Amino acid sequence: MVHSGLLKEVFSVDYFLSVRGRQGDGYSNRMGGAKYLAVPETAGTYSKSHEIRATQWVRDVQAAAGATAQEKGHIVVFVHGFNTDQWDMLERHRKIRKGLESQGFKGVVISYDWPSDGSVLGYTSDRRDARRSADLLFSNGITRLSKLQTADCDYNIHVLAHSMGAYLVREAFDYADDDHVTAQKSWTVSQVALVAADTSSKSMKAGNSKTSSLLRHSTRVTNYYSPFDEVLSVSEVKRIGVSRRLGRVGMPQDRAEKAVNLYCGRFFNDNRAGFGDGTAITHSWYFDAPRFYEDLFHTVMGKLDREVIPTRGRTDQGNLALV
């Protein structure tokens, strides 16, 4: 009850599962245990004071998912890439939440925050951290998810992974299938969206063991890619000896039927003046493009076939493209 006669303003809450180590009241770029955070949108950063119990966090996320008697709720899990400090992470999380909400999304976005160096020179150490973080995503995320899912589950769970986050997600799904207890459970995510994915293109070839778990436990995998992505260029010194990247060249022709390749190069090139300058923007522009969020919204909702989503067309080579 409000006694002042004024309506109390209601703020959104941003939800995080973080495996960054603590540093004072904040967090570092080192690995730590899993922490569940509920951060008011008015907060400029997140800290120990925002940590809550895992059980309460799960209940709050479910409540925010927007399930009704007529429609299932939607939970989008965002996994960031390399060279992302916690302040950039918070800003990107909020861009994604607001971008989807602007399209009519009524569900909740949560982010898995793993430690990366916040430096391009930290790529190799970030790769090692991603492997360890994949194990924690499995043990604290996927196992919890598998326990919650039932035949009449009221929630659709989706994954949005950017850059090295795609590698982390792929490995976490693989760990889940290697774990006897989790493998015995029937669990799935609805939509998986890979954006500027820093994994090998050939790993998405049909039957490839590296992605078999990801495909088996998802309804559809959509790959957003652009040949203008300079960060994923094999000419980068840190990538010598690394195979061509999924987020730059797309999936191979002989991919699984549920895998969708979405060419975004023409859209980026036609609109690049509006995204700013620099190498990094060629890798992250998606999160500053309303058109991307419109496409992602339709992808997540899953009501339209991949061929009739209104943000898509065909290239002169017949490939599906963001337009």
Structure description:
- The chain has helices at residues 54-64, 86-101, 123-148, 164-178, 180-183, 212-216, 246-249, 265-271, 281-284, 290-301, and strands at residues 13-23, 26-40, 51-52, 73-79, 108-113, 155-162, 189-195, 218-225, 259-263, 312-314, 320-322.
- By secondary structure, the protein is an alpha/beta fold.
- It has one domain: 3-Layer(aba) Sandwich (Rossmann fold), CATH 3.40.50.1820.
- α3 (123-148) crosses α4 (164-178).
- The chain starts with 12 loop residues before the first strand and ends with a strand.
- Number of contiguous helices: 10
Percent in helix: 25-40%
CATH class: Alpha Beta
Topology as H/E string? EEEHEHEHEHHEHEHEHHHEE
Tell me the distance between the termini: 49 Å
CATH architecture: 3-Layer(aba) Sandwich
CATH fourth-tier homologous superfamily: Alpha/Beta hydrolase fold, catalytic domain
Protein name: Alpha/beta hydrolase
Pfam families: DUF900
Question: What descriptive keywords fit this protein?
Answer:
alpha/beta; 9-stranded mixed beta sheet; two-stranded antiparallel sheet; about 30% helix; disordered N terminus
Structural topology:
Layout: E1 13-23, E2 26-40, E3 51-52, H1 54-64, E4 73-79, H2 86-101, E5 108-113, H3 123-148, E6 155-162, H4 164-178, H5 180-183, E7 189-195, H6 212-216, E8 218-225, H7 246-249, E9 259-263, H8 265-271, H9 281-284, H10 290-301, E10 312-314, E11 320-322
Parallel strand pairs: 1-5, 4-5, 4-6, 6-7, 7-8, 8-9
Antiparallel strand pairs: 1-2, 2-3, 10-11
